[in-house]
UniProtKB/TrEMBL annotation:
GO terms for biological process: ribosomal small subunit assembly. Residues 214-296 form the KH type-2 domain. The gene is era. It comes from Nocardioides agri. This is GTPase Era. PROSITE patterns: G_ERA (PS51713), KH_TYPE_2 (PS50823). The lineage of its organism: Bacteria, Bacillati, Actinomycetota, Actinomycetes, Propionibacteriales.
Length: 310
């Protein structure tokens, strides 16, 4: 039993929402202090619910990254929206991201209105990407966020301007989010940055590298599955090597050609880029074996979706 002298410990779950490209993934990484979630300049590329974990002496903040809420166009889109809603009803805090360099629009309003329906969860508003806005813009953006709250009936527990890129106000945001958490024990062991299986993290990094430089319509067609990941046997203890075999799935032959590139050049650079990132994340040298495969129209096929982990 505590005597009242000790500092209380808080723990809980926070989820970032906001329209595509609002900066949710970048913010998750900035708060955790390490890259655990893929970021991309293509909207709606975040698919897996990966948690980043912030460890502090006084608190544990578990960040749940969700795909952007959007009107579903395919079966995949519907699954994503279901995933988002289930996640949001279970977290302690929903942090709604409004990019400071853009006016609040119908998309933001749609999301904030959906959030207003989730009564139990506390809501925090975050003005993201403040490095892209002038102080006048930031000022009126904050007023707009407050006005939106009044209009749709959301009581913002906090309204915080931040820049994940510049690292501005990230520590303050961390404090404010911790302040919204209930008292509770540490939920994850020290040092865990995420509870996503390493296979999922590796698959996300490969997917991110594969998407780099692709045109708008292709990102939705790319899925990555790590088929096998294991330490190679008969290696000296101080020279481990992790073997990873992964498949990159696309929906059509033409897309396969694009991903592979002339003489396999694109696939090779996808492999090199993602291998380095996986090595940095897991701290082990990696041998990465990548194959591109066609899974016809996988986004519309429930069986294939399950196989690809959705
Ligand atoms: N200048 C600047 N750019 C940022 C900042 N945060 C994110 N970005 C950029 O904005 C783009 C989108 O960022 P993400 O973090 O992937 O956005 P998201 O909300 O997770 O996107 P979805 O997965 O599409 O929902 C990327 O190109 C980021 O580099 C920031 O603080 N400043």
């Amino acid at each position: 039993m505590t005597t009242g002298q000790e500092q209380s410990h808080r723990s809980g779950f926070v989820s970032f929402v906001g329209r595509p490209n609002a900066g949710k993934s970048t913010l998750t990484n900035a708060l955790v202090g390490q890259k655990v979630v893929i970021t991309s300049d293509k909207p709606q590329t975040t698919r897996t619910v990966v948690r980043g974990i912030v460890h502090r002496d006084d608190a544990q903040l578990i960040l749940v990254d969700t795909p952007g809420l959007h009107r579903p166009r395919t079966l995949l889109g519907e699954r994503l929206n279901d995933l988002v809603k289930t996640t949001l009803a279970e977290v302690d805090v929903v942090a709604v991201c409004f990019p400071a360099n853009e006016k609040i629009g119908p998309g933001d309003k749609f999301i904030a209105t959906e959030m207003a329906k989730i009564k139990r969860t506390k809501k925090v508003a975050i003005a993201t990407k403040t490095d892209l806005a002038t102080s006048e813009q930031i000022g009126s953006h904050l007023l707009d966020i407050a006005a939106l709250g009044t209009e749709i009936g959301v009581d913002w527990a906090e309204i915080v301007p931040v820049s994940a890129k510049a690292g501005d106000q990230i520590a303050l945001l961390q404090d404010l989010l911790v302040g919204q958490l209930p008292e509770g024990p540490q939920l994850y062991p020290d040092g865990d940055l995420t509870d996503a299986p390493e296979e999922i993290l590796a698959a996300e990094l490969i997917r991110e590298a594969a998407l780099d430089g692709l045109r708008d319509e292709l990102p939705h067609s790319v899925a990555v599955v790590v088929e096998e990941m294991r330490l190679r046997e008969d290696r000296p203890d101080d020279k481990p090597l992790l073997d990873i075999h992964a498949n990159v799935y696309v929906e059509r032959d033409s897309q396969k050609g694009i991903l592979i590139g002339p003489k396999g050049s694109r696939l090779k650079s996808i492999g090199t880029t993602s291998r380095k990132q996986i090595e940095a994340l897991l701290g082990t040298p990696v041998y990465l074996d990548l194959h591109v495969k066609v899974a016809k129209d996988w986004q519309r096929d429930p069986r294939q979706l399950r196989k690809l982990g959705f």
